Amino acid sequence: MGNWSIKDQRPILPAVERGEPISYMVLQKGVRVESSEGSEVGRVKRVLQVPEKDVFDGIILSTPSGDRFADADDVESIYENVVVLRVGDEGAALLPRPDKSAGTMSASPDDVTETGLRYAARRAWNRISGKY
């Protein structure tokens, strides 16, 4: 038998070339998602963001067990060809299913406060209808 070492062994599957680090804004659907241990856990299905605030909210990934939600805090880094999670294989398996309303939503003070015109119209209507 010849001498060999672990260095002589070749991986069965070649490592995925990560590519350059990128912004979540250019992350493409179908990009590989890996656990912190390097195992593929799924593929990017959708990127969630709050555009008004330029905030990354997380990703929905497609897995063999169905769609899963990885919060922005669960994402370690984003590259051209792979997203690396902060959780290991077991943690990735426990990622929650996305809510039916998973997406983005925002509200500003203008959405919940009355403008001068709106206030005047409400006062006028209340007087006309007898609701002082």
Report on this model:
The chain has one domain (7-103): PRC-barrel domain (SH3 type barrels), CATH 2.30.30.240. Helices cover 17% and strands 28% of the residues. It has helices at residues 89-93, 109-112, 116-129, and strands at residues 32-34, 40-50, 55-63, 66-71, 75-78, 82-85. A hairpin with a 5-residue loop joins β1 and β2. The termini are far apart. The model is unreliable at 1-6, 9-13 and 103-112 (pLDDT under 50).
List the helices and strands and how they pair.
Elements: E1 32-34, E2 40-50, E3 55-63, E4 66-71, E5 75-78, E6 82-85, H1 89-93, H2 109-112, H3 116-129
Parallel strand pairs: 1-6
Antiparallel strand pairs: 1-2, 2-3, 3-4, 5-6
Proportion of strand residues: 25-35%
Question: First CA to last CA: what distance?
Answer: 99 Å
Structural class: alpha+beta
| Overall 3D form | elongated
Q: Can you tell me the number of structural domains?
A: 1
Provide the CATH topology. SH3 type barrels
Order of helices and strands: EEEEEEHHH
What's the CATH class label? Mainly Beta
Task: Determine Rg (CA atoms, Å).
Answer: 24 Å
Please give the number of β-strands: 6
Helix content: 10-25%
Low-confidence segments, given as residue ranges, are 1-6, 9-13, 103-112
Assigned CATH superfamily: PRC-barrel domain
The CATH architecture name reads Roll
Mean of the pLDDT scores? Answer: 79
